[in-house]
Design goal:
The chain has a single domain, classed as Ubiquitin-activating enzyme E1, inactive adenylation domain, subdomain 1 (FAD/NAD(P)-binding domain, 3-Layer(bba) Sandwich). The protein is 52% helix and 16% strand. It has a two-stranded parallel sheet. Strand 1, helix 4 and strand 2 form a beta-alpha-beta unit.
C-alpha cells in the first residue's frame, strides 16, 4: 500500500498504536480544507503536511 520511500518517511508515526500502515495510508489519501490561514491556520497546515495528509486546500480571504 505504501511505497518504500513513504514507509521510511513515516516509520516513526506508523509505529504508534492505533495508526500503523493502514492509518498512514488513510492519512495519505485524505483531503482537508483549512478556512483562514492566520497564525493558527499556518501552524495547522504545517502539522498536517508533516503528518502526511494527502491533499490540503487553504482558503483565506485576506
Amino acid at each position: 500500500m505504501i511505497n518504500r520511500s513513504l514507509r521510511n518517511r513515516y516509520s516513526r508515526q506508523t509505529r504508534l498504536p492505533g495508526i500503523g500502515e493502514e492509518g498512514q495510508a488513510k492519512l495519505l489519501s485524505s483531503n482537508v480544507v483549512i478556512i483562514g490561514c492566520g497564525a493558527l491556520g499556518c501552524t495547522i497546515a504545517t502539522l498536517l503536511v508533516r503528518a502526511g495528509v494527502g491533499k490540503i486546500k487553504i482558503v483565506d480571504r485576506d
